[in-house]
């Protein structure tokens, strides 16, 4: 997996100038190489009986206050939410155990599978290698066959591509608009190269010949850096199928098995589209995902001599091989080949296979996705490599357009056994599907449905039913050609004998327990738990006549004093527990502690909600008594200010004081400042991008 190359944070330092009469400043910047350190994205699969509005409301109420819903998909049934990294594991664990959600998993970045290019050749060889010219006597392809390129954006006005696009060019899932054109011609060439291999216009007297004359769609799900969110890619696959794509080319991968992407490729096949995916470029003996899903065609790369490319991944899930070394195709900028270039990767092998599949579909338009997958494999040419390296063989255009009817695939037989079919609520049941078999192939996947919104995968599963009732537990097995069968077993769950309910345990934390008047502080009760059930409600009493009702809350006090903050949590059986802590609220002195003053300031720029900058500050005055930290920013942003009093680097979850009002400007006043005291400062973007000034006004005695 490749991380976004834009750094999330930088660190700056205020230094006191030695021997200066007034305040002086030296600024140094260190850019972290570790991106994505402030937030993590979690994808949550919605249960069968849970509505999208209910799921969104539950996500908003049971995640930290600064969490944000990134994307929702009714068709695929998931909600994608961005949460602070410090809270991510806790949020993931909480939603894994909620019956309203089928799964909870981290989003992953997938990236384009392009390998480094060592040298260029003067000719195009891949159409000849897959025997496309011999197929053209039968068909050069059909505009009725639609190939969707889920990738970076495609330069759809390229002279060799514009004839392959219709009025709908595609959709941009990175920038969330209807124009999938590349943002950067220099960096965003991958999708254009892939599109040309599959379907650059053939026999037009211009440039190269694509494998097939098909209609193209561009589903831009990878940024100019070549990576993209799993949630965006899954939605791009869903959209492609809904737009009528017959083939979905995915020259990308990474991150391993996820339910979100599994559901997306299953949706595609169910709606008439065959996903064809690059095997991956790290040379290992297993293919990457999404190529590893049984719904997809996994494509390895071979060179001009039909040897496995050194970078190509392979393994028992490899379906076919295709040319992927020094492939000449369309390009976004001018090179020594004109508007074309040669690069290598399983990303390049994948669209050659997609083009061959498109020729097969043009020759036999009645083929469904599973039949087309079987036809592509059954007509591949054996080039003498092992099955792990070539799958069924190298794709062959002549064979696929001349092929007869593919024999009907026989569906698998499902065997399902339960350790017990009558149990008490809360008792685990073991389910075994290992006796299932396939008469003409192998079983690729096992999918369990426990009749209450919960699911599982694998040949066996263990599940605990929490509520009484009768459940029809279904097992669906799918074979290597996409055929599936389902069987079920009925389990009766009875109420156990009454037992005493255990009251929940309360955890209460505060961002600070000594705060100035008017400053907001976060109170966190998410660490509360219930040993024999779940927590149903949170009730806060802030000791000043105000209350709250969510797991985490923000509160500011209007008057100085000592306050008792109480949290009462109630579980699903009505038992409750309460815990309290003391908060001291102090008046701010407001700039009257001394007659001498000094000022320091620095400027910075934040690129969006994921960005922040750190500073440190040491007083310049010999006998300081107060420091006022001021943040000034543009009117269209919402930046927040965090300060630590001991010099440690603050974060949005570790600070001694903060100011997070709505808007661009913040202020924190600190009294009783010591001459050698060091402060840590964090400026964080809650919303928007732009420049800012951070200044410190000192008062001295």
TrEMBL record:
Record-linked InterPro entries: Cadherin-like_dom, Ig-like_fold, Peptidase_S8/S53_dom, Peptidase_S8/S53_dom_sf, Peptidase_S8_His-AS, Peptidase_S8_Ser-AS, Peptidase_S8_subtilisin-like, Peptidase_S8_subtilisin-rel
Cadherin domain sequence ranges: 405-506
An individual GO BP term: proteolysis
- Keyword Protease listed? The answer is yes
Keywords of this protein's UniProt record, alphabetized? Hydrolase, Protease, Serine protease
A matching Pfam family: PKD_4
Recorded GO MF terms: serine-type endopeptidase activity
Q: Domain named PKD: which ranges? A: 412-496, 504-592
Q: Where is the active site?
A: 151 (charge relay system), 190 (charge relay system), 347 (charge relay system)
Cross-referenced PANTHER family: CEREVISIN-RELATED (PTHR43806:SF11), PEPTIDASE S8 (PTHR43806)
Name the protein family: Belongs to the peptidase S8 family.
Protein name as it appears in the record: S8 family serine peptidase
Species for this entry: Halorubellus litoreus
């Amino acid at each position: 997996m490749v991380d976004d190359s834009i750094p999330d944070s930088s660190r700056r330092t205020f230094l006191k100038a030695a021997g200066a009469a007034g305040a002086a400043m030296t600024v140094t910047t260190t850019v972290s190489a570790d991106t994505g350190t402030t937030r993590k994205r979690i994808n949550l699969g919605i249960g069968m009986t849970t509505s999208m509005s209910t799921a969104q409301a539950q996500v908003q109420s049971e995640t930290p206050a600064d969490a944000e819903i990134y994307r929702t998909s009714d068709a695929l049934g998931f909600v994608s939410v961005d949460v602070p990294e410090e809270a991510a594991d806790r949020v993931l664990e909480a939603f894994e155990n909620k019956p309203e959600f089928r799964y909870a998993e981290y989003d992953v970045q997938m990236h384009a599978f392009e390998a480094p290019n060592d040298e260029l050749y003067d000719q195009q060889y891949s159409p000849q290698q897959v025997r496309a010219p011999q197929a053209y006597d039968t068909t050069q392809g059909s505009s009725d066959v639609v190939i969707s390129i889920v990738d970076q954006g495609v330069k759809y006005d390229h002279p060799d591509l514009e004839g392959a696009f219709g009025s709908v060019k595609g959709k941009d899932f990175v920038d969330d608009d209807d124009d999938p054109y590349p943002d950067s011609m220099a960096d965003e060439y991958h999708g254009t190269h892939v599109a040309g291999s599959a379907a650059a216009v053939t026999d037009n007297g211009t440039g190269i010949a694509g494998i097939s004359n098909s209609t193209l769609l561009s589903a831009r799900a990878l940024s100019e850096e070549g990576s993209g969110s799993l949630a965006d890619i899954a939605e791009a696959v869903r959209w492609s199928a809904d737009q009528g794509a017959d083939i979905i080319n995915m020259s990308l991968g990474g991150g391993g098995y996820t339910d979100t992407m599994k559901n997306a490729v299953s949706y595609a096949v169910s709606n008439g589209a065959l996903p064809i995916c690059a095997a991956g470029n790290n040379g290992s003996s297993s293919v990457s995902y999404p190529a590893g899903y049984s719904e997809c065609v996994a494509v390895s790369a071979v060179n001009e001599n039909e040897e496995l490319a050194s970078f190509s991944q392979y393994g028992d899930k490899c379906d076919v091989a295709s040319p992927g070394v020094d492939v000449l195709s369309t390009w976004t900028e001018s090179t020594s080949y004109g508007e074309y270039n040669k690069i290598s990767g399983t990303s390049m092998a994948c669209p050659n296979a997609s083009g061959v599949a498109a020729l097969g579909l043009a020759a036999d338009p009645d083929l469904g996705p599973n039949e087309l997958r079987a036809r592509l494999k059954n007509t591949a040419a054996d080039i003498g490599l092992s099955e792990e390296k070539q799958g069924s063989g190298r794709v062959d255009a002549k064979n696929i357009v001349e092929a007869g009817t593919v024999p009907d695939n026989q569906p698998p037989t499902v065997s399902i056994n339960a350790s017990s079919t009558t149990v008490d609520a809360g008792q685990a049941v073991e389910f075994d599907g290992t006796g299932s078999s396939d008469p003409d192939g192998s079983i690729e996947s096992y999918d369990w449905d426990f009749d209450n919104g919960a699911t599982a995968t694998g040949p066996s599963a263990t599940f605990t039913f929490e509520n009484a009732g009768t459940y029809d537990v279904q097992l669906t097995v799918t074979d290597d050609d996409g055929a599936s069968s389902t069987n079920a077993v009925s389990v009766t769950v009875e109420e156990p004998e009454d037992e005493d309910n255990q009251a929940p345990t309360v955890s209460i934390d505060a961002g600070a327990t000594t705060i100035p008047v008017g400053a907001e502080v976060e109170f966190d009760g998410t660490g509360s738990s219930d040993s024999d059930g779940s927590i149903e409600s949170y009730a806060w009493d802030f000791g000043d006549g105000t209350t709250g009702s969510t797991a985490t809350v923000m509160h500011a006090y209007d008057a100085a004093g000592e306050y008792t903050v109480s949290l009462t949590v109630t579980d699903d059986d009505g038992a409750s527990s309460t815990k309290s802590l003391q908060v001291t609220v102090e008046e701010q002195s407001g700039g009257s502690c001394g007659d001498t003053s000094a000022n320091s300031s620095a400027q910075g720029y934040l690129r969006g909600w994921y960005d922040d900058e750190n500073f440190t500050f040491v007083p310049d005055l010999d006998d300081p008594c107060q420091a006022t930290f001021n943040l000034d920013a543009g009117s269209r942003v919402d930046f927040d200010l965090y300060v630590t009093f001991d010099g440690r680097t603050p974060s949005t979850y570790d600070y001694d004081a903060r100011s997070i009002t709505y808007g661009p400007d913040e202020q924190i006043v600190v009294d009783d400042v010591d001459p050698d005291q060091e402060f840590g400062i964090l400026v964080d973007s809650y919303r928007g991008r732009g420049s800012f000034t951070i200044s410190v006004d000192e008062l001295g005695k």
